Amino acid sequence: MNRYLFVIDYQNDFVDGALGFPGAEKLDEKIAAKIRAYGEGHVLFTRDTHFENYLDTREGRNLPVVHCIKGTPGWECYGETAKALAEVNAPGIDKLVFGMDVSDPATAAVLPEAADEIELVGLVSNICVVSNAVVLQSKYPEATIIVDASCTDSFDKALHEKVLDVLQGLQVQVRTHATTL
To answer: For position 54, what pLDDT does the model report?
Structure first.
């Protein structure tokens, strides 16, 4: 079975930086354990990627908090998760918007040809996790898409709970207990 783990935007700026929130750091050990369990060749990660003109973009006008500027410490992956990603040589996907652009040649080059199962973890559940779940569901229409609710969160707990319901409505399996595989 072709199984893949996608770690979505588990970056310093979303954990303890510009858009960090209490509790985001608690996901670190669980996400790192999942990365190690999936192992090399089965893990990919995304990085929210912005540039100096961020405040001039649509997103920047709607969320005027400068974050994840490429090359800054806030753009880098966080803590033990970063170490685990390096250990398994996980390829990174720099994304300029909420959901990855699967038609971008650099992104397409690292995506698997086929997938039977895709699990998503990371931040933020009601923005980039849900966006990438939909993108991956479109790219791999026959794959089972899973979101581990114990490995994702949001600064807005009400939206977090709502998006888990929305994901289920989109035929995404939402696991509400921690699992490594």
So the answer is: 96
